[in-house]
Amino acid sequence: MVTIRVGAQQVHVPMGSALLNVSTEHNLPIVFGCRAGRCGTCLVQVVSGSANLRAPTVREEGILKVVDAEPDWRLACQCIAFGDVHLRYV
After folding, report:
1. Are 82 and 53 a contacting pair, CB within 8 Å?
2. C-alpha distances in Å from residue 55, one per residue of 9, 10, 23, 61, 79
3. Which residues, 6+ apart, have CB-to-CB distance to 12 below 8 Å?
4. pTM score, two decimals?
5. Dist. CA 55–CA 39, nearest whole Å
6. Which of 12, 1, 2, 90 is nearest to 47 (CA)?
7. What is the pLDDT of residues 5-34, one digit of tens each?
């Protein structure tokens, strides 16, 4: 099991879970628009556990560049968790 924390909320999910799906299923406070890594609305800051996320896709890297994201920011719709992660919704 993997622990995902967003703010004060914490959930336990299977390894390999998509963060945006986890957010939707467990009512975590991450807003999203397209679910396809195009709009940037699901931008999150990875407080800890960045090594436990799948590497950014080319599409995600492009959007992160467009929105001028900091190095520890990711798109929740593109993240797959393979270990514990602590996020902050930006």
Report:
1. yes
2. 24, 23, 19, 10, 8
3. 1, 2, 3, 4
4. 0.85
5. 19
6. 90
7. 888 889 999 999 988 888 888 888 777 777
